[in-house]
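Internal ticket - ligand job 356, iron/sulfur cluster:
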Amino acid sequence: MARDGSLLLALPAAKLIEPLPPMPSVERTISLHEHAREPRPATTLRWPVAEVEALLALPFADLLFQAQQVHRQHHQPNSVQLSTLLSIKTGGCSEDCGYCSQAKRHHTELEETPLLDLDTVRTAAQKAKESGATRFCMGAAWRGPKQRDLEPVLDMVREVKALGLETCCTLGMLKEGQAEQLRDAGLDYYNHNLDTAPEYYGEVITTRHYQDRLDTLDRVRAAGINVCCGGIVGMGESRRQRAALIAELANLDPHPESVPINNLVQVEGTPLHDRMQGQPALDVFEFVRTVAVARITMPTALVRLSAGRRELGEAGQALCFLAGANSIFYGEQLLTTGNPDVDADRALFAALGIIA
Ligand code: SF4
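stdout (structure tokens):
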């Protein structure tokens, strides 16, 4: 059983490597949170942005070696956790996230669907379980749930939990009291991504603030629900800004239990597709570097390959696993973008000797 409660099958003890020397301490005290929009009181920061950026700049082999060391200190080295994601309410969202096909103001081909019924969700969760997933994530395209939206989702959480799966929801911003209702229904994880660095955030989203996201994460944490929080890279941000995103995640106290790292999938009709003209902003090595740095700075987290995994190809994914990724979204569809099919994932795991 991993620290966050997900089921990871272990390799025989004989295959584990010898204990590694302890990693140098990264605790330090500085006077200001150097990349926040507003000064914060003196605090202990584990990862200043400059140090995360320095990690990103390491020679590739040195970075992966360091990430492997951290990974093997905290996780079974050849195990990957499987999560399946279901869009329970698609499209028609009031927000303006520049990467998202579900914003109603963006001109995409996406077909809107209302909230799924309970039977449909239960059937999908059962199928995910039979395919090997241990966690079932339910996503709804809302700014945040109204109480009348939340009630049926609570029923879904209860049903999925009753199947013996870990439960996760991503429903947007939560108001006071909503996290507690989700917890009481049996929610194990709440996903709410920071998306990008504070200083790049306004280039991507204008309808809510970075602090709104941090407030929702605080509510989730205070309710005792595990935090799933990551971001999207390849949105035109600089390396420094990628470092700032990772630092922001790593300096959450405690750091998230799950960290999805998405590589932007440019969907036609979204502002980021228009801005980037379909040209990938990140090469595969930079993406692998980002995964490695997430592993080093958040040693006990499940680092999850999320959107954009198919575009990495098999060799790219293998490098990500080497860099410390140990979770994937599993199943042929993410919220609205494609994913490698289950057979392809199984074949890749077999080729790499990964147990899932
Ligand atoms: S990412 Fe979520 S909040 Fe943003 S537009 Fe898409 S569905 Fe809405």
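Auto-summary: The radius of gyration is 19 Å. The chain has twelve helices and eleven strands.
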